[in-house]
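Troubleshooting log. The previous structure file for this entry was overwritten by mistake, so regenerating from the original sequence record. Sequence copied from the archived sheet and checked twice against the printout by T.R.
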Amino acid sequence: MRPDDSYVLRLDGISIEVTRKRVRNVNLRVRAGGEVRMSVPLRTSRAAAEACARAHLAWIRERRAEAIAREERLATDVSAGELVSVWGRPRTVRLRADGETPSCALEGAELVLSGPSWLLGDASRAVGARRVLVADLLASELALRLPEVLSACESEVGRCASAVSTRWMRTRWGSCTPRTGRIRLNVALAERSPSCLVTVVTHELCHLAEPSHGPAFYSLMDAHCPGWRAAQAELDANPPQMFGPTAKSAPGSAG
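Regenerated output below.
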């Protein structure tokens, strides 16, 4: 990439990193901590990019405020009475002194964290341990449900992934490498409705046929996952809680 292919716009105190790329459309994204990035087609002038950014300035301000507020919320503890979403259902956190081995389990409408008395305290050790327990439970939930969903989606789309991995992601619900057929999924999908997992898996499988987000890609999505727009709206409106090791996030989307 040449040096002049990337530059920074400063609008009303907001810095926007602009990159000229081989894309058809302008892509504007607010990332972790309120960082704003915009990719534009190669022939887009600086003036045109600035005009586009100004036209979306209200949206940028709103999304930056959400991202920054979210970063602050991520610093809070998983304490008794808080709500944690599992497969789209809010679960009330309950702490219980019980035994010597910390554990986390779903019990009806509750998410019960059990273990030695220190787990219920306010020390950093307890706070970190509770977050890890929730992260592990979500990872287990995704691992249990994924094989069936993946098999069904592969049959529907007519494409198979060469490998599928799960991890905590900062800004995306999923991603893929069309050249190798590898797909990566955000563990935080276990927070959202099951239809969201189906949508993201289908999204990434469709990318194996159509790498870009052009009309052909969305035709595939409409054909193989008719309810994808509702699921994507849920994902956009409910960013991942990110209990995992990279606990910073801005609203994300499937790749």
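The longest strand covers residues 89-97. Archived copy saved in two places this time.
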